[in-house]
Structure formats: C-alpha cells, structure tokens
Amino acid sequence: MPSDRPKRRDLGPRRRRESLDALLDSLSAWDLLHIRSRFLDGSVRLDGFAGLSELPPEVFAYIIPHLGLRDVLSCYRVSRAWREAWMQGAVASALCSRFFPGLLELYHNDVPDRNQLFRATAQQYMRKLYVKRSFVAWDVGWSSDIFTNAEDPPVSRQLGNLREVNFGFGPLTVHYSSGKLAWQPDNCHVIVDDLHTRERSRFSFGMDFISGRPLQLQAVTDSLVVLATSLPQHQSRHQTTTDNGQTITVFHLQFRQSRNVVLPGKFAHCYAQGDTVAFVTRQGQVVVWGWSDSAYELDIDHEQYFFEREGWESDLGGIPGIMFHPTDTDVIYAAWLHSALQPDPLIHIVVVIKFERGKPVKRYESSISHPEYHRDPTTRYSCPAMRLTLTAQKMDNYGGYALGIVQLVLDRGNAPWADKQAKPYTDWLCITFNVLTETYLHIKYESRRRPNPAQARHFDLCAWEDQLVISWFDEYLVSQGYSHGLEWLQPVPVGDGASRCAHTNFVCKSVTRQQVEVEDYMSDHGFGRRIFMDKDFFIATTGQGFMLISFNDSLDLPGLATRDENGEVQRCKNPPPATEGEDIEPPRMSASWDTRKVTSLVRIALDKLPENQLDQPGW
What we know:
By secondary structure, this protein is an alpha+beta fold. The protein folds into 2 domains: 31-128, Up-down Bundle (Monooxygenase); 130-151 and 161-613, YVTN repeat-like/Quinoprotein amine dehydrogenase (Methylamine Dehydrogenase, Chain H, 7 Propeller). Helix content is 16%, strand content 34%. The chain has 10 helices and 32 strands. Strand 14 (286-290) and strand 15 form a beta hairpin.
C-alpha cells in the first residue's frame, strides 16, 4: 500500500554544500581535527573518484606539459602509490620526451628501465643549481701548477720558462670540447689542458711549409686539434677582408701524429666531433673528413632538396652550419639561413638538410616572423632591427643543437635609459634543432639588464639546455659605461603546449642570485671573451685566465677558489681576485667567418603577412 510519508526532496548540490558548510561552522576545533585525521588515516573512503595511481598512463600525457621538472620530482615523494604511478614505463617515456627530447632516441628506445634513465638525467640537470667556482690563470709553461705535461721538456725549455701571463685586450684564440681547453698563445704553439685528468699537451709548429702562412687554432675535440693556414685581416677601401688558406693541419692527441688536408676552396669555418671534422669553404662547399675514414663532399646541388622560394635568397654567402649525429658518423645535418630579397614580415627561413654519406635525404624548415614591437603602442621600446647569429653549436648530450640566436635590437630614441625597467616581452630567441627527433623548438629569453644600444655587438654566445649566456666585450659599451662582461638570459615560458621549452616554468631565485654573482665577478675582474658550457663545466675566458664553474661533485676543482677551514671548495662562492701575470700580446690572427645577419624591421609592412602566419613559432 502506498505510504503517506512525503518524499524527500533533492536539495541539489548547492543546498547540500550550504548544509555542510553550516555543519562545519558548528564544529569545534577538536571536531575538525578528528575529521581531518579520519581522512588522513583512510577511515573515510571517497568512492567514485580515481586517484592518481588509478589513472591510465595515457592520461599522464595530458598532465605532464603543465608541470615543471621540480613538480615532477616532487610527485615522486608524495606517497608510495604516487611514486609507483610515475615510475610506469609509459609515463617515464612521456617524461623523457617532454623534458629531454632525444634521450630515448639516443639509446634507440632500447632502455630496460626508462624511469631510472629519466631520474638520473633529471638529477644531472638539477645539480647545476649547486656549483663550485674557481679561476685558472693562463700559464704558458711546459707544465703549470695545475696541469702536468707527461713528456719531458726539451732542453731549451728547462730553464727560464715564461709562466703566468696576461693577454690584456688581445684577441686570444680559445676552443673547448669534452673537458679539453685548447688555446694558442703565439704563432708557434697550441696548449691543450684536460680539465678532468689535469694533463697538458703542447704542440709546436712553424709556418705552413706549402703556403708559408701561420697556423691558427680552429677546433678541438677529445682526440683532435685542428689548425688552418691564415693571414691577418687586410683593410681595403670599403671593407675588411678575411684571408684564409686551403691547407688544414690536424694533430691527434693520443697518437701524437699530424696530417695535412687540402680543401677545394679557401677555408671559412669548421665543425668537429670525435675524430671527424666538417670543413666549410668560402664557396659553400662542405668536406667531411675523418682521421680513420676517407673524406667526402656533401652533395649540395640536388634540386629536390635545394630550392629557394621565389623572391628569397641564401644568406651569409651560402655558408652552412654543421650538426653531427651523436651515434651515426655517416649522418650529417647542414643548416642554411634564407631571407627575402624585399622586406617581408616572414623575415627568415632556417633550412636543415639531412645527409647520409654525403647524399641529401630529407629537408626541414622553420620560419621567423616579425616581432611587431615597434607597432605595439603599449611598449616603451621600438625594435628597429633584428640580429641573427648562425651558431650550430651543441646544446645537450642527446641531439640538441642551437642553430641560430636572434637578438631584438631595442631602442628608446632620445629618452633617458633607466637601470631597472619592467619588460613584459622577450629580447632574444634561440632556434634549436634536435638531430635525433628531427624537430625544431623556439625558446624565448629576456634580459635583466637595460637593453644595449644598437651599436653594441655581443662577443660570444653559448647555449646549453635552457641556459643562454652572452659575453659582451665591445669598445662602444666600455666607452659609454654600459654593462659588459657576462650576462645570463632568463628563459620565458610560452603557453602550456608541447612547443614550450620544458624547463622554463620556474627560474629558482638561488640560481638567479648565483648568476648575478658570477656576472658581477666578471665585470670587476675581467672582460668576458669566449664562453663554453657542457654537462660538467661552464668556462668564461678573460685576458688573465678563465673562470671555471664545475657541475661535477666527483671532480676536484682546479685553480684559485674560496675554501673553508677544511680546505674544501665552498659551493656557490666566487674565487678571490686573480693576480695579474706578465703582459703578453697574442698573435693577431684573422677572425672567423662572420655568421651574423642584421635585418631592418622599420620598412616591413605587417599588413602583407597572411592571417595564418601572424603567430609564427617563437614570436
């Protein structure tokens, strides 16, 4: 029989929450603590909700792009269930692809424990937050107080050696790779110091016997030292010309032997890895040579892969940048820069061609469009020009290369400059290419300093992972009292998608403080020259020596450093000021091939840019 009892009305979610809020307001503090403890000990179960550990691995792919590396590492410490969820193979693969693209491909995806690989790589990345610093003076002796030459010195070098020296403002030639720092103090010697083993190799040579020209250091690897015949620059009526020869001399560090290579044209630039060197001539030819392999030339006349858009041309004299595959020595990637003959909002196109044993097999493109800063009424700056440097330098150990670095030349006209101004936009852009994933990535950076004037030019650029460091050594900067020395740029996150640099979620304040301390040290004690960085070291060279920052705990840091009462190097402490050595003038060699392209932005009409190209990658 039907019940006379009235049906209970559903008050709805809002009314239920109001009732619960009223109940909680009526409880005492002890009652609330009791309820919280019941939730924490698991006595109260929330049925119908899936915890993180119950989610399928596919869901993590949507979560990971919104997390930073610190966030992920913190998730491992929440609970055992969370740690097991993040340790799943599919999740670890997604983490590797997101934060370290190319890492899995480096091992051909044949990794038994991908979680262990990710965590080891992440810990290696994070250890850059806790570093040791020292300063090593230039010492031209057969052996120094830090580096020992295994060979006995010749009789002529046993007494009266010149030791610590100061090259002042002279153009000292320095190169670095895999822990080996090579430098050329004069026309007849190259010194190679191993930062890992503290061993020194010293190579003596005279003029090239074929051309009668002096030899200039061009590159160093873990096994080779590369020198090219060179003459100082000569000034014509309208321009300064760099004259390089065609003869190359290569020394082998282990075999203590040398070989000569004759190029089909005058030398412009070279790139080296292991015992392989890619030589680029001023005519745009690329010759790949190996110590234990035959030389071959890249086929750059293939119409299927080498074509230009109508109204576009190749920049920098058609000189490409070269990238090496980390595991396959037969694979080479070459990058060219193209720009429009007439002012165009699509300013540059970066073209990468993949070669297999000299034959082109694939083409990749990425474009750079107008930043529109001088058209934005909300900004206090205009952007009259854009300066792009073709670098093609290695930026990680899993296939990443910094192809080009773009500087926006900002200007405020005749308005006074302020030392500190908030800038809600970027000053720099790094175009990267990974040879293992064969993909581009554009990373934005901003400077903490006031913008340098358009007349100032950087001396050197160095990119490693998400770090971008600039060396400013410019006569105009010094004469006008602008900042010089080193400058760390801050990566800028752009959106939450997969195109954003994975490491730019958060810049730790302690890291920023350390960077500023190093910048101040370099400004006080020396002008920054060539700069280098890899997984173990950051090196900033000056006329007196080089500042060395070590990321490797197992390495005893060489050189002058601040130490504690136990004699241990203090972390995150600048070294004391270095003593000046005897003044010496380095050889005035010819400069490297100019890889900078400056584009005026004032004449470009943005209304010609199609709507679907208004938001190009990177800007």
